[in-house]
Design a protein that fits this description.
By secondary structure, the chain is α/β, with parallel strands linked by helices. It is built from ten helices and eleven strands.
Length: about 270
């Protein structure tokens, strides 16, 4: 197994990786960092992901699983770099780094590139600010078999480390589309896909709605909900609150709504 060793934080390769971690504008959403063997294995298994460079510690490389994984990566012509735990910790944002970090790319697709597996099923994120919430929605979308997650302006970065961890690897399974609202409206109209929005003020329950037809469902900002622009174009749906809680966390609400769509479609011919 061939690798190079870098011990100085002043090395240009380390400086470049730190810029990517800080998400300088030049990188946009195309290049980002992932951490840990689980995410690394999911990225390596995804045809949509290109692993460009891997940093690992000597301790990681001496473990049996670490050796196995590094050998696999070496066959893919990935640049392997052994570095110190101190330097590796600068590339992570976790308290206990797992000994391996990679620079990867996974370009977001455009609306026209969405591929439907059956009845169209799109999830829209509108102004969601918490990386944990966004990551959980992407994970739930993957589990529920959605065709894509559309990210509208005002939503946090789907490719930041906190969001990626919250997806538990589902980011590499789920097509991510960045779009402006008007472009989304035009696309949905062209495909005859109905737009719904989770809204606590809505009069209609999600359980009273027919979601068997092509659908896109939007989830909004944690404090303010879906934007007025979307609400003007969407049919609002609410989740009944039977107890004393005022509302559900947006990620919880998304999971409930997505699986109601799954439930309604499960027994279609």
């Amino acid at each position: 197994m061939r690798f190079i060793e870098i011990t100085s934080p002043a090395n240009p390769i380390i400086k470049e990786a730190l810029k990517i971690k800080e998400k300088h504008a030049r990188y946009r959403h195309e290049v980002f960092l992932i951490e840990g063997p689980h995410l690394m294995e999911m990225a390596a298994a995804s045809p949509a992901v290109d692993i460009k460079r891997v940093f690992f510690t000597e301790d990681f490389s001496t473990k049996k699983e670490g050796q196995r994984f590094l050998r696999q990566l070496s066959k893919k012509e990935v640049q392997l770099i052994e570095t110190s735990g101190h330097i590796l910790s600068k590339l992570t944002d976790t308290e206990t780094p797992q000994g391996i970090v990679a620079i990867v790319s996974c370009k977001a697709i455009v609306l026209a590139e969405i591929s439907f597996k059956g009845i169209p099923f799109i999830v829209v994120c509108d102004g969601i600010q918490d990386p944990g919430n966004l990551g959980t929605i992407i994970r739930a979308s993957d589990a529920a078999g959605a065709d894509a997650v559309v990210i509208l302006p005002g939503t946090c970065d789907a490719f930041m480390q906190k969001t990626i961890r919250a997806t538990a690897g589902s980011l590499f399974n789920m097509p991510i589309v960045y779009s402006e609202p008007e472009a989304l409206f035009n696309y949905l109209d062209s495909k005859s896909i109905a737009l719904y929005a989770a809204d606590v003020r809505a009069q209609v329950s999600i359980y009273e709605s027919d979601l068997k037809q092509p659908a896109a469902i939007a989830f909004g900002n944690e404090a303010h909900g879906v934007s007025e622009l979307l609400l003007k174009r969407a049919k609002g749906l609410k989740i009944p609150i039977l107890g004393k809680a005022e509302s559900l966390n947006v990620a919880m609400a998304a999971s409930v709504c997505l699986y109601e769509i799954v439930r309604q479609r499960m027994f279609l011919d």
